[in-house]
Design a protein that fits this description.
Blueprint (H helix, E strand, L loop, with lengths): L12 H7 L5 E5 L6 H11 L4 E5 L3 H8 L3 H8 L4 E5 L7 H11 L4 E6 L2 H8 L7 E5 L5 H4 L5 H14 L3 H4 L4 H23 L5 H13 L7 H8 L3 H13 L3 E6 L12 E5 L2 H8 L11 H19 L5 E6 L5 E8 L2 E8 L11 H6 L4 E6 L8
Parallel strand pairs: 1-4, 1-5, 2-3, 3-4, 6-8, 10-11
Antiparallel strand pairs: 6-7, 8-9, 9-10
Pfam family, one: DUF4143
Protein name: AAA+ ATPase domain-containing protein
InterPro entries: AAA+_ATPase, AAA_14, DUF4143, P-loop_NTPase
Length: 382
């Protein structure tokens, strides 16, 4: 990619700036190493007023904020126009602290970043009701990468993005071996560490094995009971671990879409990885797409993740589902929003003949658009 990598702007930045208003709090959430700190630093550098940047993992920051009094916060931030607290979820009672600052320090805008959605939301939820805006930052989307490379260059990068994912540092690495080492380190030192430490868990091996089982069942409906039996854990414990990994932006679910037919599957979930590079690191498999028996499932994960990133970072209120009936008719991806219903069939290889929607789906939802996204036309959709 050359010695001077292009600058890649972040889609969510405009929303952050739009919501940074006096007496309001913006929560920017996402996995570690996705660029939250860098984005916060960019905002700090471009901000025209006085900006204070605090690292919540620094004990000095915690000591500064520990005295939860109006007097202390006015002394600290009385002249501050923008207060940024990075990795805010590590500070107990951060919600109460920030509420007091927002209430009592006139004119201050507050930006909090955090790598655990649930922890940060729980810490700030009730205290900041009506005062906060929740935003999310994911690894680079293909939409964002268009700002740095041409369509021709991005098409050449496609298999790299599928195999190694889109964490910012991975995107700019030249050598595959460096990417593999980095992804394994991210998984071990950040993602799993966050899940374990923030939730006071000790079952490192079982958490990793659970992720491996989910990685092998990519694109399939998952039985919590079967996972529990395999791991020697209760169904409830498996469910809790999966929710915690969802919270830490490691995995996310799609539920079954059901509106018109009694035979539609609605209770099951399929689980996907927020970054395909992390998924491949979990199973230690970075083989080229043409040598992979899981190429179809990996493509499905990649496309669904890209669509999710686009919708979330552009603040679109779009819900994502899969569709299946008990007689095995299915659609890989359903999107529903105010513009209507869209259905997508996801095929890594160019289909040899025209793909039509399942008959049951076409009859139940005649108004739905139906598209096939494959390895040749993906640029139109991602």
């Amino acid at each position: 990619m050359g010695s001077n990598p292009p600058f890649i702007g972040r889609t969510v930045k405009a929303a952050v700036l739009r919501w940074l208003r006096p007496q309001r709090v913006v929560l920017l959430k996402g996995a570690r190493r996705t660029g939250k700190t860098e984005l916060a630093r960019q905002i700090q550098q471009e901000f025209e007023g006085r900006c204070d940047f605090l690292n919540a993992e620094d004990m000095d920051t915690r000591n500064l904020l520990a005295d939860q009094s109006v007097r202390n916060y006015r002394n600290l931030f009385g002249q501050t126009d923008l207060l940024i607290i990075d990795e805010a979820q590590v500070i107990p009672d951060i919600g109460l602290m920030v509420k007091l600052i927002a209430d009592e320090v006139k004119g201050v805008r507050i930006l909090l970043t955090g790598s655990s959605s649930l922890t940060l939301t729980q810490s700030t939820g009730e205290p900041l009701t009506g005062r906060k805006t929740d935003l999310e930052l994911y690894p680079f989307s293909m939409e964002e990468l268009r700002g740095g490379w041409s369509g021709v260059e991005l098409r050449k990068q496609l298999t790299d993005r599928i195999l190694y994912g889109s964490y910012p540092e991975v995107v700019f690495m030249e050598h595959p071996q460096d990417r593999k080492i980095y992804l394994k380190e991210i998984l071990r030192s950040y993602l799993l560490k966050d899940v374990l430490m923030l939730n006071e868990l000790r079952e490192t091996d079982k958490l990793r094995k659970l992720l491996q089982l989910l990685a092998w069942q990519l694109g399939q409906e998952v039985s919590l009971q079967e996972l529990g039996n395999t791991l020697g854990m209760s169904k409830n414990t498996v469910e809790r671990y999966m929710e915690l990994m969802w919270d830490a932006y490691v995995i996310f679910p799609l539920s079954g879409y059901q509106k018109n037919l009694r035979k539609e599957v609605a209770k099951s979930k399929k689980w996907y990885f927020c970054d395909t590079g992390i998924r491949n690191a979990i199973i230690g498999d970075f083989k080229p797409m043409e040598l992979r028996p899981d190429a179809g499932a990996l493509w499905e994960n990649f496309v669904i993740t890209e669509r999710l990133r686009q919708h979330r970072m552009n603040l679109r209120d779009t819900a994502l589902y899969f569709w299946r009936t008990y007689d095995r008719q299915e659609v890989d991806l359903i999107e529903e929003d105010e513009d209507g219903l869209r259905a997508f069939e996801l095929k890594w290889r160019l289909p040899s003949k025209k793909v039509k929607p399942p008959l049951g789906f076409a009859k139940a939802y005649p108004e739905a658009a139906f598209e096939v996204v494959h390895g040749e036309n993906w640029y139109e959709y991602l």
